[in-house]
Amino acid sequence: MKLFIVEDNQAGAELGYKIIEESLNQGEVKVMGLATGSTPVTLYERIVASDLDFSDIVSVNLDEYVGIGADHDQSYNYFMHKHLFDKKPFKANYLPNGLNENAEEECARYDAIIEANPIDIQILGIGENGHIGFNEPGSSFDSKTSKVKLTESTILANARMFEKVEDVPQYAYSMGIHSIMQSKKIILFAYGSKKAEAIRATLEGPVDEAMPASILQKHDDVIIICDKEAGSALSTETIEKFA
Ligand code: GLP
Q1: Inter-axis angle of helices 9-25 and 41-49, nearest 10
Q2: Pocket of ligand 1 contains residue 126 by CB under 6 Å
Q3: How many whole angstroms separate alpha carbon 211 and alpha carbon 132?
Q4: CB atoms within 10 A of CB 156
């Protein structure tokens, strides 16, 4: 793992953008794995402001809420169109279909999409409890796409996006940890002190299903970009080790 501690989310976006730009210019990228949440917004703004061409690139998103449709303004599909796809056209954009009530069928459909489109660069945020995608603590490291029950802490953390906490869906479809780990390169972004403990455990803690992001220690090309607040619980030793 390589760690960069940057000034703020603008500097994080700039650094992430440069890494993506270099990979794209080397012709190494056909598929990008994308994330939602507030964290990647500055990266998507930076991509939109660039003249980088994504028209030959396929995107595969990490997750989607169950029970709300693609045009619901809190769906991840809506989010991705608003922040990126409507302004920067891709060859194709894939997300799980939150309205498919048949979970088995939807998960198999999404796994087939992931298999047909192996991810070259995966963008990740991180939950306060260390979740990646919507793989909550306790999710198997061998997991593929599944319907997950969101934890109380995730529902509360995401409630700010909804009118009231009762409106936050209880379930989501999420790409599994196994699939995330198959990505060739992973760039994880984290901003703010609420992420400090999750970042510390990701880099310093044991590799344990109780802390989903800790599995990234086993991947050979992970870049973690965080601001000072998100990096504030890291020891000097860790900062030097991954510099
Ligand atoms: C959400 C998403 C994750 C995201 C995380 C952090 O629940 N499913 O993919 O990384 O929570 O969100 P934020 O970036 O808003 O802090």
Answers
A1: 50
A2: yes
A3: 9
A4: 13
Beta partners for 23?
none
Closest CA to ligand 1's atom 13: 37
Q: Give the pLDDT of residue 87.
A: 98
How many helices (DSSP H) and strands (DSSP E) are in the chain?
A: 8, 10
DSSP-derived secondary structure letter, 35: -
Catalytic positions are: 63, 129, 131, 136
Q: 3-state class of 116 per DSSP?
A: helix
According to DSSP, the β-strands at 171-174 and 63-65 are: antiparallel
151 lines ligand 1 (CB under 6 A): no
Give me the average pLDDT of each 10-residue run along the chain (243 residues).
98 98 95 97 98 98 96 95 98 98 98 98 97 96 97 91 92 98 98 98 98 98 98 98 96
Query: Parallel, antiparallel, or unpaired: how do β-strands 222-227 and 146-149 relate?
Result: unpaired
34, 80, 158, best to mutate for ligand 1 pocket (most atoms within 8 Å of CB): 158
Query: Phi/psi class of residue 67: alpha, beta or left (left: φ > 0; alpha: ψ in -120 to 50)?
Result: left
Laid out side by side, the sheet with 171-174 consists of 63-65, 171-174, 146-149
Distance CA 171, CA 150 (A): 6
DSSP 139-198: --TT--SEEEEPPHHHHHHHGGGSSSGGGS-SEEEE--HHHHHHSSEEEEEE-SGGGHHH
What would the two tokens of residue 113 be?
Answer: 């999409």
